[in-house]
Amino acid sequence: AKRIALELPETEESTWFRTPAVKVRGKAFVRL
Prior knowledge:
By secondary structure, this protein is an alpha+beta fold. The chain has one helix at about 1-5; strands at about 10-15, 20-25, 25-30.
């Protein structure tokens, strides 16, 4: 899921509530 999400435009790998996440324009998109 992370690999696919990071292929989308304007996404970045980050954390959200101390768990891995993918954000779009600084907003949470997928929590892993």
